[in-house]
Amino acid sequence: MTANNGIYIAGRWENGTTAIENRNPSDLSDIIGTYGQANADQLDEALSAARAAQPVWWRAGVQKRHDVLMAIGTELMARAEEIGRLLSREEGKPLAEGKGEVYRAGQFFTYFAAEALRLHGDLAESVRPGIEIDVRREAVGVVAIVSPWNFPVATPAWKIAPALAFGNAVVWKPANITPASAVALTEIISRQDIPAGLFNLVSGPGRDVGQRLIESPAVDAISFTGSVPVGRSIAAAAVTNMTKVQMEMGSKNPMLVMDDADLDLSVAHAANAAFGGTGQKCTAASRLIVHENIHDAFVERLVDAAKALRVGHALEDGTQIGPVVSESQLKQNLDYIEIGCNEGAELLCGGNRLERPTDGYFMAPAVFANTRNDMRINREEMFAPVTSVIKAGSYEEALAIANDSEFGLTAGIMTGSLARASHFRANMRAGCVMVNLPTAGTDYHVPFGGRGSSSFGPREQGRYAAEFYTSVKTAYVAAGDVS
């Protein structure tokens, strides 16, 4: 079996020796396409082409890089509805979210187009007379990008854009579950005036293509978003070649709801953060730590809000929650529902597979109450439309519970107290903290990342991206005798 999509190497599309079938999780009868899988030889070809193209791209200069990235970003934004529909069809998020993701991906490219022009250096005085010092940033080389399925356009965009902006070549291995989005983004990049081999798409199984990619000595840096176990294996493999690594991994994000918070706003933000994108976000609020004084009222309203959410086909008007992305993900979600119940948590609503006019992986948003922070449902990332409520007797207890986790990506607090908000910002051990906002939702021009098992290496996004995608060089120059 062969397919013409899924593999783009050295400036040309190639067939795969094998292929995978891509089905719509909202309607399993809808086959989106068949996508080729790269083999080891094709990956090696991509790496060789990237190494040859990278110095050519670096020498092309900042204006060239700006113009190319601006063209990519502008086209993504212009085609947000078209590509967003494709994204929602294959990943399952509601159409408005799919279109919004593609538009945001375009913004990443236009932002980093401008950053390409701001690649400034420093001049310093030497402690030795007659010597000048020049400090500048240079491209790190060939960047391997391994991206997940839950944001199949935005996540690779915020990796690919800075990689190209700062003069690097890219070999991208996307998630196999969302190949159509990867092909759509690659098609736009492929039409730009860039050296053949500068950008390569190598779809394939992680155990074969992915493992060979991260172990390759031809790779200078690896940017990965995915699970903690895979991240740890990547870090271990990268050590052999001393490859630079940047990783965004798991989370178990808390939202504190204090007794001085606006209750209606708290419920709205909690439901948004917990169930938006079917809960398939690394920034989802999966632990709701609620002050005992408002606990019962909050839980009652949250359950009502969860029950009111419209679960349906991602492309239908009015859908608020789309399907789970795959059969295996749905099974994992339902297993966690059983685990929570067996641990003694009270399932107040949802947690069951839903029947809809089309055959898809639909699941009712679930709320657990009477949970403890030591339960598995409060320790492990579920990536599901499931949230747990934990009762706390005070702000201090709520903060301690929130910090009692191996993860530290995002965290939020709902409060009317400036003192509590300020204390939370200073003492919550997370990379991103939100005050009176959902835990999900970040801007593209500022750093993104977490602490603990959530992240490893330099931050992503914004000006901080240069720390990963460039290498600092310090040059000493003897000024010489002017006579």
Compact description:
Helix content is 39%, strand content 23%. It is α/β, with parallel strands linked by helices.
Structure in words:
This protein is 39% helix and 23% strand. By secondary structure, it is an alpha/beta fold. The chain folds into two domains: 7-249 and 454-475, Aldehyde Dehydrogenase, Chain A, domain 1, CATH 3.40.605.10; 253-435, 3-Layer(aba) Sandwich (Aldehyde Dehydrogenase, Chain A, domain 2). The protein has an eight-stranded mixed beta sheet with strand order 2-1-9-8-7-10-11-21, with helices on both faces. Strands 14-15-16-13-12-18-19 form a seven-stranded mixed beta sheet, with helices on both faces. α3 (80-91) crosses α4. The longest helix has 23 residues, at 95-117.
N-end to C-end Cα span: 74 Å
Any idea what the shape is? globular
**What is the highest CATH level, the class of the largest domain?**
Alpha Beta
Helix content: 25-40%
Please report which band the strand proportion falls in: under 5%, 5-15%, 15-25%, 25-35%, 35-45% or over 45%. Answer: 15-25%
Low-confidence stretches: none
The CATH topology of the largest domain turns out to be Aldehyde Dehydrogenase, Chain A, domain 1
Quick one: CATH superfamily of the largest domain? Aldehyde Dehydrogenase, Chain A, domain 1
